[in-house]
Design a protein that fits this description.
The protein is α/β, with parallel strands linked by helices and 249 residues long. It has 9 helices and 11 strands. Strand 5 and strand 6 form a beta hairpin.
Length: 249
């Protein structure tokens, strides 16, 4: 480990872990508070936000005030092919140097040019997600477990400003449970008990599964929720009074 990396490593240990958004505005011209939707999927609060665009472009110029109020740093790029992409690549490549506390990065764009960031950032200990629109849906792709979820829908194809539909809370809880179980499975070859899963879930997300269900007014126990809502992902085996959980192939 060289001097610079060692300094960043120790500095990162003193800062509160957080997430970051790199938003390609022209690729995603919506008035949507993404942080509210991403809370259900990301482990850390998103406190660092960049929105990149040619703000002279009439089609997105009215978004500047909205994004500024959402806490984004607005970055202007001149008109030109891939100008915004180049700026986001630069931001992403140097992000951990400026903000070593960042543990998750959400790149809001469908452009394949950002695949290099999705490959390189995890090597530096930073998880990545991709948010993009396709047809009437807005998707989030989680590169941790290679899963894609619908997090919102667009009310009208011709209306680029009003996404609708609240985040699917149950789906996000399912995803977090599966991620936690997968993590425990990677650590040990022994079967994972419901108690072990619950402890790890609380460690990762600051609330137990039962507490998350209760706060979202989902009237099910952790076991019943997994039995009913995670049936396609998780197999439950009971021995005496102990429940063991296995990820389905």
């Amino acid at each position: 480990m060289d001097f610079l990396n060692s300094q960043l490593y120790f500095l990162s240990k003193t800062l509160t872990p957080s997430g970051a958004i790199l938003l390609d505005v022209e690729n995603f011209p919506f008035q949507l508070d993404l942080t509210q939707y991403l809370k259900a999927y990301c482990q850390y609060p998103i406190t660092i936000k960049f929105a990149v665009a040619n703000w002279l472009n009439n089609s997105i110029s009215k978004l500047d005030k909205y994004l500024y109020q959402q806490g984004y740093q607005l970055i202007h790029v001149p008109q030109g092919k891939n100008s915004a992409d180049a700026q986001i690549l630069t931001l992403g490549s140097s992000l951990l140097l400026q903000f070593p506390q960042v543990k998750e990065v959400v790149i809001v764009s469908h452009d394949s040019i950002f695949d290099c960031l999705h490959q390189n950032l995890p090597r530096q200990g930073c998880s990545t997600y991709k948010v993009y629109q396709h047809s009437r849906n807005i998707y989030l792709h989680n590169f941790i477990d290679n899963r894609t979820s619908v997090i919102s829908t667009v009310s009208h194809l011709g209306d680029k400003s009003r996404p609708t539909k609240e985040p699917n809370i149950e789906q996000s809880i399912q995803s977090k449970i599966a991620l936690t179980l997968n993590k425990l499975t990677q650590i040990s070859s022994e079967p994972v008990t419901l108690s072990q899963l619950s402890q790890q879930f609380k460690h990762d997300y600051q609330q137990s599964i039962s507490e998350v269900l209760k706060s979202n007014k989902i009237g099910k126990s952790a076991l019943n929720f997994i039995k009913q809502s995670c049936v396609n992902q998780i197999k439950i085996k009971q021995e005496n009074k102990t429940h063991y959980l296995l990820l389905k192939e």
